[in-house]
Amino acid sequence: MIEDKNSLSGLPTVRRLPMYLHLLKELNSQGREFVSSTHIGEKLGLDSVQVRKDLASTGIVGKPKIGFYVPALIGAIESYLGWDNSKDAFLIGVGSLGSALLGYAGFEKRGLNIIAAFDNDPDKVGKIIRGVEVLSLDKLPDLAERMNIHLGILTVPGEYAQVTADVMVLAGIRGIWNFTQTYLQVPESVFVQDEDLAAGLAVLSVRLARALNQE
Amino acid sequence: MIEDKNSLSGLPTVRRLPMYLHLLKELNSQGREFVSSTHIGEKLGLDSVQVRKDLASTGIVGKPKIGFYVPALIGAIESYLGWDNSKDAFLIGVGSLGSALLGYAGFEKRGLNIIAAFDNDPDKVGKIIRGVEVLSLDKLPDLAERMNIHLGILTVPGEYAQVTADVMVLAGIRGIWNFTQTYLQVPESVFVQDEDLAAGLAVLSVRLARALNQE
DNA sequence: TAGATTGTTAATCGATTAACAATC
DNA sequence: TAGATTGTTAATCGATTAACAATC
Predict the structure, then answer these.
(1) The pTM is what?
(2) Residue B165 belongs to domain with CATH number
(3) Which of A119, B32, B47, B122 matches a 20 to 30 Å C-alpha distance to A111?
(4) Cβ neighbours of A150 in B, within 8 Å
(5) Which residue has the closest alpha carbon to D13 C1'?
(6) Among A76, A135, A88, A78, which Cα is nearest to A110's?
């Protein structure tokens, strides 16, 4: 079965699942056992039908009149997202954004372990930033193979994005979380997940302009 | 005319505009005068029809057989996004992500100026981080009014997100760029732009699992 | 039982893609 | 002129929302 690598089907749902998870963990820590889709929807500004459809995609089944058992729901979402399994990753480019991501506590609790960082700057190589050692980019191919790493977080300056991605692909990286502005050309076997701050800023800019002009 | 604040119409286009802009500036610096939608599409992995439709939303008009005049296109996109006008903003929460954003050079060239940062931690108040002074959160309401600030970047820990947002709204902030995981309850007159790293990580996780399992 | 809630099927909505006329 | 390219109108596709039967 061939899957279009640009297929976005189901992705809006996948993007909402972390919101549910966040709320459910809060409810769980408050000792709440059951929750209805109506309640979740109210808390997150979503329609209850959409909540039920999203949750159904994880395979969970609720009980009429009662709702969903919170611990089971948490487990189902984490399992669906694979956040109950550990995934090792490299981070490439230890600038300000890269450094911030190295210290982001949210990765670990979602199964993502950054086990090494890489940079070309001799001033940075050898340092330990937020508990992660910074290595020379030369060492990436060898290490990726030996440690069986398939995932890379790309935070280099835009002008080096493509050449760095080429190195990563050759080293066997199969997924690139791309924080640069550059559109990466990669083989079909590799997927790129773009995380573009500028896209959010664009929406923000347009909406702010509308809000300030219209009222 | 009442506008639904949750309206997403046109937003996919708005989110793609920064990509075009990035490419066009590169072409411009290479001295290229004209570019076709086909060429843009090839460089960015998009269909040429979609490129034309996206560009048309900015009001630009191309020339059959020739394409679009690059400098005019750059100007049209920047104007449509309002990136040619300066917008002042506050940043609230000077943790690792907040600090990284303070140093993000991409904001300035898109018309976003962070003119002050706020935090409740006495160790941080009074410091200057990446050229921006960190002030006590107490001072936000007074300063927002005096300086006529309507935009806030929220990077506090999740558990303080709602109370901090409440303070911001009372202070007259009209737009909140929300980097926390918390869904914010705000009045209709305020818009929230969520920027959720976990959403991207969720998509990445699901796609990586598929890629590694299926082949 | 009655009513709240789930889960499914159908309708709507918006965005993308296809087809094609207009134009330099 | 011929052909490449734009811009528009129609068709398709996927996601959201509405309607409603099933169930505890």
Answers:
(1) 0.92
(2) 3.40.50.720
(3) A119
(4) 208, 212
(5) A9
(6) A78
